[in-house]
Amino acid sequence: MEKSWRCTVCGYIHTGENPPEECPICGVDSSFFELVTENEANKPKEVKPVTKPVTEQPDMATAIRQALYRISYGLYIITAQADGRDNGQCANTCFQITSDPARIAIGINKTNFTHELIQKSGKFGVSVLSQTGHDYARGFGYRSGRDVNKFESVAVHRGQSGVLLLDDSLVTMEATVMGQLDAGTHTLFLAEVTAGEILQEGDPMTYAYFRASK
User: Fold this and answer.
1) Cα–Cα distance between 104 and 97 in angstroms, integer?
2) CB under 8 Å to 88, separation ≥6 — which residues?
3) What percent of the chain shows pLDDT beyond 90?
4) Does residue 65 share a domain with residue 83?
5) What is the pLDDT of residues 130-159, one digit of tens each?
6) Are 131 and 169 in the same domain?
């Protein structure tokens, strides 16, 4: 029977005879992994903060990649509507800029259908996933809305701006674009939040949690 190893930093479970050289979620090395039993591997565990000084720096490209691993991300469903078409996608770049006035920013790949709809309409919606939102992350994240209706069999409602929002989410927001920044492959949209609703209590899904528990 293969052994299970848990990352003591992010909780990621690795299966194999030995721990991985590097955690694929948070980037720490094998010394941060502990051997766990089969029952322990299937149970959530409180992860205590662990720090360890780095005695040898990797090459610059590796250092940059590992530094990016340590930035915390959420997972959100970004929705938009234009020309009678609705679409949504999973995104991990959504963050508050200011609270008064309420302004947020999102990063969207230029090739995505959602990007096209946001540029046409100047509006978008954000549905914040809970830690049970794995199916939504997959359904809205691995296929193009140009080819399929991602909202099929998904409980949604229209917000004040007309965008679709997920019923099964912690909170939703609607926003109007104020400006945008060309970020190469992506566009960073700055927007003012025009509406919000609280639907559920719970902890938000993070990218690290999604990868560790999928």
Assistant:
1) 5
2) 77, 78, 79, 80, 114, 127, 140, 145, 150, 151, 164
3) 52
4) no
5) 999 989 988 998 888 998 999 999 999 999
6) yes
